[in-house]
Amino acid sequence: MSLLLTCLESISRADSNEDGRITRNEIQELIMLSASANKLSQLKEQAEEYAALIMEELDPENLGYIELWQLETLLLQRDEYMDYSKPLSMTSVGKTQNLSSIRPKNVLSKIAFAIRCSIVENWQRTWILLLWVLAMGVLFSWKFYQYKNKAAFKVMGYCLATAKGAAETVKLNMALILLPVCRNTITWLRSTRARLFIPFDDNINFHKMVACVIAVGVILHAGNHLICDFPRLVHSTPEEFAPLASLFHNKKPTYGELVTSIEGITGIIMVVFLIIAYTLATNRFRRNIVRLPPPLNRIAGFNAFWYAHHLTGLVYVLLFIHGSFLFLVQKWYQKTTWMYISVPLLLYTAERSLRTCRSEYFSVKTLKVLVLPGNVLRLIMSKPQGFNYESGQYIFLQCAAISPFEWHPFSLTSAPGDDYLSVHIRMVGDWTQELKKVFTESVNSLPERAKFGQVAKYDQDGVPRLFVDGPYGAPAQDYKNYDVLLLVGLGIGATPFISILTDLLNNARAEEQMNCINGKKKSLKTTRAHFYWITREPGSFEWFKGVMDEVAEMDLKGQIEMHNYLTSVYEEGDARSTLLKMVQALNHAKTGVDILSGTRVRCKVPCFRN
């Protein structure tokens, strides 16, 4: 109430001549001040229109002014103009209250309850990680004790056993690290029962974990060899070296000869390549957060990450060579490197070959290009024949005008029933910036905005050629298996959910038509969807305006419930946003359009304190 009084005081101050009357210009000035405080530049431009709306409501006799008490009354009764949707249904609130009664009270029970919930929620990850750790432990122990019983152990000691044990885990992980990025295989496995006990959604996280363990293994292996094993071998006595003489052609090597041997050179080159790949894969380099002076600035960004990552292809070639020339192993079947990595490497090579072949077949035409607020580019492309996908999935795009080698993933925002493909691209990296430049500079004028569900004609002369690879599986694609959906998106992260909402609406419309024709009622499994979209910039709502307006107009059964939240506006009850809330309520009651989002879906402000 105190904040509301503060707002009323500010309105009173707007009465410059203190006669208890406020003119249209004074209301416009108040709206502009409130819009500036909430960083709503577009609303400032429409302040005159909204001031006229208030005057129309409170001054029906066209006196040219309103009484101060009238504006205060409208401010106090703003909620009567708009019945905001509740964040939870009464059923959900009741269930939440029931759950609170079964939560444990004492500390030990709370800990046990938390552990039990964690196991239930993460059992898929748990058994995969335990199996992985167990496999590494078994391999390390096996190789460690194998070398502990060899003659070389008497010369090089535990350093040798540790280096060989670490090498065995590196072989395993160099094989495993390829599996999470075999996207076609994972997409296929998602449609099998394997999805019930393997967490395919964590494939990239597992890929990163394996990479970290490889780094540890390489440090142990290379470090023990260079710092411990080689010096011990070089400084061994003739009696100590005698059992190993035949392995080194009866001549004790020098430290330089060991380092410059095939095993040494390949090992050092692999370490250098891995250091480059690991460094450029870090978040600061990949997202171009690190600001380096020219010309070093070109080694940061997604492009550098992409090329450095493919440098690891040479690491596998060197690993084959490194594993084939070993000082202490002579028999071919004891050189096990090829046994570990052959099958995963062939699978990954087949996947990349499939991408090359399929991309030529899935060459698309750009039907429409839109540059949207918030530095977002929307591409509408032709749908290749035989290209079938599910909402929530993503594709890889290649633009040969930028690079014939780079592929970048983007979630599809079109629905499977649409006759086109659509993606929304946030321009945050070097490749996406180049994509915007290529499209905006290749066409003299971009086509006008088409209505939702329609595709504008586009002149193909000079338009860059795009290639599509996919579709690939994603966590959201299984939405059809659930009765009630809770979709939460932040900023551009809402893209897969837009496809799902459109698909739900299309399916509901098709089902209604089938019911009218056949008279048979066939209900969809998904009966309700709650979509929560939180964004910082008001212009972001322009990205999916067509979809949201379509849902608001045609979802007569209330199957889809949408909640838009704008974080740049001061929260509910703050004096700096109270006037805007009044204008928002009044405008939505009059026109059905929200002033913050520009759509028919009402926009709210999150209250983080609660």
TrEMBL record:
It is found in: Membrane. Coiled coil: none annotated. Pfam families: FAD_binding_8, Ferric_reduct, NAD_binding_6. Residues 359-478 form the FAD-binding FR-type domain. Keywords: Calcium, FAD, Flavoprotein, Membrane, Metal-binding, NADP, Oxidoreductase, Peroxidase, Transmembrane, Transmembrane helix. The chain crosses the membrane at residues 126-145, 258-281, 304-329. It is a multi-pass membrane protein. It comes from the Eukaryota. The keyword Kinase does not apply. One of its GO terms (molecular function) is peroxidase activity. Gene3D superfamilies: EF-hand, Nucleotide-binding domain of ferredoxin-NADP reductase (FNR) module, Translation factors. PROSITE patterns: EF_HAND_1, FAD_FR. GO terms for cellular component: plasma membrane. PANTHER family: NADPH OXIDASE (PTHR11972), RESPIRATORY BURST OXIDASE HOMOLOG PROTEIN E (PTHR11972:SF44). Belongs to the RBOH (TC 5.B.1.3) family. This is FAD-binding FR-type domain-containing protein. It comes from Kalanchoe fedtschenkoi. The lineage of its organism: Eukaryota, Viridiplantae, Streptophyta, Embryophyta, Tracheophyta.
